[in-house]
Design a protein that fits this description.
The chain is of the alpha/beta class and 455 residues long. It folds into 3 domains: 67 residues; 125 residues, no CATH class; 168 residues, Rossmann fold (3-Layer(aba) Sandwich). Helices cover 57% and strands 7% of the residues. The longest helix has 31 residues.
Length: 455
């Protein structure tokens, strides 16, 4: 049963239920107390030990039912009705043919329990639980059937067909063989759902993390929804990592002076320990996003990413522009992120880009939001349609802020071509990087957070 529990935990992890080694040990100890005879008690013991949130409980229930449900085998394990008209020599041939093949004996007898047990043992030998891709299902099914002894059944059928009196036996065995193949396919499909769904999803997410945000033809709606969820998970992962670092930083060191001063009221005995405290700065971020047609998708993901970091960002002020610049913080506060970004794009997106005009609007109306603790993140391609770039205002933003980070979805080789003035803006940026995938975006924002964590 230990191996079964290990395989079940693998299935849970594939279903995005995180199970640590300590939790796996707790589950093993729990079921040694509850036993296996009471299904509901067994399930509850595992659920309490392994599922840690309402979402994980739902995924646990689905995985448990799929893993521990044994579907009844089809016609392959259906006992045949005894027939009076069946010749004695035919029954004798059936018994003689089955003597050399345990699988043939089980098929002819319709022994469902024995067939189910044989299939699970064969699946373990064939390594069906190692399935990762949907393209492996056919190969795994054939390997499973070979381990069960299907080749012997096919030989018996071929030999029986060569004799007139054996054709009835061949027909019966062939029907059972086809049903067995269908049962094996269903079994492998269930193993794929248990073990490969998470792997396929992870592979898909890895590909989407590297997908260009301004790809020609846009992003497929199905991929868009998955990428938005991926952005939120990236943000949560960074938030958790930052919180752990902050917790370590808050421990500090023993403050000897304060501890001795407190101990004077207790005859010098240090009943109250005082620790040195470190001031932990949470980042203040100003995001300025170009939402013109060429970079609208990248801006959407940047805003989603930043707003998912609310728990570690002290202050986040977001602005969007195509021609004129407007604050979009209120829109994002009043709506869900997806609807809010759509509203921003409808309000100001897809207009003719004018970086100089946008910088002037920011300087005249919002420059007081910048101080020495503020990081400015600008997302745009630096193409201003040959308008005045207002480098003086860019220098002013640089001088007032802690750092300026420019994320450009175009490669650096394009920064001086056509109407792009990115190479001129780059002089007033602490960091200017090509950023056109979610993976790059995560790495850059992580670098921003790291600069605020004391070491």
């Amino acid at each position: 049963m230990q191996r079964t529990l290990e395989e079940f935990i693998r299935a849970l992890r594939a279903a995005d239920v995180r199970v640590s080694p300590a939790e796996a040990i707790d589950a093993a100890r729990a079921i040694t107390v509850t036993g296996y005879s009471d299904r509901e008690l067994f399930k509850d013991a595992l659920c309490v030990s392994l599922a840690k949130s309402p979402d994980e409980v739902v995924r646990f229930d689905q995985t448990f039912e799929t893993f521990f449900t044994r579907e009844r085998l089809s016609k392959a394990a259906t006992p045949e009705e005894p027939r009076e008209d069946r010749a004695e020599d035919e029954r004798g041939q059936s018994e003689e043919a089955a003597e050399g093949s345990p699988l043939a004996q089980m098929l002819l007898a319709g022994d469902a329990a024995a067939l189910a047990q044989a299939m699970e043992q064969a699946a373990r030998r064939a390594g069906v639980a190692e399935i990762r891709l949907s393209t492996q299902r056919s190969r795994m099914t054939r390997r499973l059937l070979d381990e069960m002894g299907l080749a012997e059944i096919e030989q018996i059928i071929a030999a029986a067909r060569q004799q007139a009196e054996g054709r009835a036996l061949a027909a019966r065995l062939d029907d059972r063989r086809k049903a067995l193949v269908a049962d094996a396919q269903a079994y492998v499909e269930r193993q794929h759902a248990l073990y490969a769904a998470g792997s396929a999803k992870s592979l898909r997410e890895e590909m989407l993390a590297k997908k260009a945000l301004n790809a020609d033809g846009g992003i497929d709606p199905v991929d868009l929804a998955m990428m938005q969820q991926l952005v939120k998970r990236m943000a949560k992962r960074l938030a958790d990592r930052y919180s752990r670092r902050r917790h370590v930083a808050n421990r500090g060191h023993l403050d000897v002076r304060k501890t001795l001063r407190k101990s004077m009221a207790h005859d010098g005995i240090p009943f109250e320990i005082e620790w040195k405290l470190k001031k932990i700065e949470k980042p203040s971020i100003v995001a300025i996003c170009d939402v013109s047609k060429s970079v609208a998708a990248a801006a959407q993901f940047l805003l989603t990413f930043l707003y998912s970091l609310n728990e570690v960002v002290d202050r986040l002020d977001a602005f969007a522009f195509s021609g004129r610049l407007i604050p979009v913080g209120k829109i994002l506060d009043d709506h869900e992120v997806e609807q809010a970004i759509l509203k921003v794009l409808q309000t100001i997106g897809f207009q003719q880009t004018d970086y100089g005009r946008a910088l002037q609007d920011f300087s005249e109306q919002h420059i007081d939001k910048l101080d020495r603790h503020t990081t400015v993140i600008i997302l745009g391609d630096g193409r201003s349609n040959f308008a005045e770039p207002r480098l003086d205002l860019m220098k002013q933003i640089h001088d007032r802020s802690r750092s300026v980070i420019w994320l450009n979805p175009e490669p650096e080789s394009y920064w001086a071509q056509g109407d792009s003035v990115m190479y001129r803006y780059a002089r007033f940026c602490h960091v200017a990087k090509h950023c056109n995938t979610l993976a790059q975006l995560e790495r850059i924002v992580e670098d921003v957070l790291r600069t605020y964590v004391p070491h």
